[in-house]
Specification:
alpha/beta; Metallo-beta-lactamase, Chain A; 9-stranded mixed beta sheet; 6-stranded mixed beta sheet
Length: 288
């Protein structure tokens, strides 16, 4: 207990020093890096980081990283990013402060040139969170508060909007998850972090456009996410489940997989398929 009190005393001032709550709805200062991707294509990488989440979106010469997996998969994540010849991450989004989503953040922040960093307004009294905060402070990076209504600028023919969180306080950290919808031409991708039914219901009640061709299934396929109402509104053709092989949580849960199969959704899983890469020209989505 004494250890956690000391840790919390370190985290709080760090967090206050770097966290800037912004009401800005648009970010326009990302720098293009045209060497990264083929023109007129979006490439979405669902990176196999074991029992965790990490996605890399590459489009219009820009790079967006959503989450950075658990501590145990840092080398795996960094090797994957290195193979993509990434020079700059225009945006990083930490969907929420759980270790299996921010474990690799400090390493990523230290290595790469970062444009803007987003996270929900939620502290975590952990060494992993402290490491992330310290790395951000060392590079004079601020944390922009991620919430519904914020748009990221990923260039032409694309929208990238945060659909959640829609509240300021939740009992469960998972519901602080930043949910992102990316629309490239006619192709739509939804990234849900670990958002559970409370957050899903808030999005449904706001009558947000949740429709997506590809759904990154919430909370690693747990039964606490992916309600029937939510899946009906999203109506995905492809579902991606990010989880570790033989993980102790039993992810993905049978109920969730059954719901997807009953809807005839194509399911890909990182514990079965490894890293999954989808590309689209704005009309057709294909698996590499």
């Amino acid at each position: 207990m004494q250890h956690y009190k000391k840790l919390f005393k370190v985290i709080i001032p760090l967090f206050i020093a770097i966290f800037t709550f912004t009401a800005c709805n648009n970010s326009k200062n990302a720098v293009n890096n045209p060497t990264q991707n083929t023109q007129n294509i979006i490439k979405v990488n669902y990176i196999d980081v074991g029992q965790g989440d990490s996605e890399l979106i590459q489009v219009n010469g820009k790079n967006l990283l959503i989450d950075a997996g658990p501590n145990e998969s840092i080398d795996k994540l960094m090797n994957y990013l290195s193979k993509q010849n990434i020079k700059k991450l225009d945006y990083i989004v930490a969907t929420h402060p759980d270790e299996d989503h921010i474990g690799g953040m400090s390493s990523v922040i230290k290595k790469y040139d970062i444009g803007e960093f987003y996270a929900p307004k939620k502290l975590a009294n952990t060494r992993t969170f402290e490491n992330m905060a310290t790395a951000l402070k060392s590079k004079s990076l601020k944390i922009n508060a991620g919430k519904a209504g914020i748009n990221l600028d990923l260039g032409n023919n694309i929208t990238c909007e945060m659909l959640a969180p829609n509240s300021d306080k939740y009992k469960d950290t998972n519901n602080y998850s930043i949910v992102i919808k990316i629309t490239y031409g006619e192709s739509k991708f939804l990234f849900t972090g670990d958002a559970e039914r409370i957050s899903e219901t808030e999005m449904l009640n706001k009558n947000l456009d949740l429709s997506a061709d590809v759904l990154k299934v919430g909370h690693h396929g747990s039964s606490s996410s992916s309600s029937n109402e939510f899946l009906n509104k999203v109506n995905p053709k492809i579902a991606i489940i990010s989880c570790g092989k033989d993980n102790k949580y039993g992810h993905p849960h049978h109920e969730t997989v059954t719901k997807l199969k009953n809807r005839k959704v194509q399911i890909y899983r990182t514990d079965v398929d490894g890293s999954i890469v989808l590309i689209s020209d704005g009309k057709k989505i294909a698996k590499q």
